[in-house]
Design goal:
Radius of gyration: 26 Å
Distance between the termini: 53 Å
Strand content: under 5%
Helix content: over 70%
Largest sheet: none
Shape: rod-shaped
Order of helices and strands: HH
Length: 90
C-alpha cells in the first residue's frame, strides 16, 4: 500500500506542478491533456524510485546497525575476558 500511495502522491504533485506552470503562463488549464499525463507519469516514476530508495536504505541501515551491535558485543566480551584474565584492571 505504501508504494501505491507514494506513486499517487508524487503523480498528484506532478499534476499540481503542471497546473502551476500553466497558471504562471496564463494558459488554459485543460489546453493540452497529454502534458498532464506526461507530468503525472514522470513524477509518479520519481515517486516509485523514491520508494525503492527508501526501502533499500532502510534495509541497509538495519544491516549496519546489526553489524555495529555485533561488533560492540564482541568488544564487550573481549574486555570481560581480559578483565577476568587480569590483563586489564577492573
Amino acid at each position: 500500500m505504501a508504494l501505491l500511495t507514494t506513486i499517487t502522491g508524487f503523480s498528484l504533485f506532478g499534476l499540481a506542478s503542471r497546473f502551476g506552470q500553466l497558471a504562471i503562463q496564463k494558459r488554459n488549464l485543460m489546453d493540452n491533456l497529454g502534458g498532464h499525463v506526461v507530468a503525472m507519469a514522470v513524477f509518479g516514476y520519481a515517486g516509485y524510485w523514491a520508494h525503492v530508495y527508501e526501502t533499500r536504505s532502510g534495509e541497509y541501515l538495519a544491516m549496519k546497525r546489526a553489524e555495529i551491535a555485533e561488533r560492540r558485543e564482541r568488544k564487550f566480551e573481549a574486555r570481560e575476558q581480559a578483565v577476568k584474565a587480569g590483563v586489564i584492571p577492573a
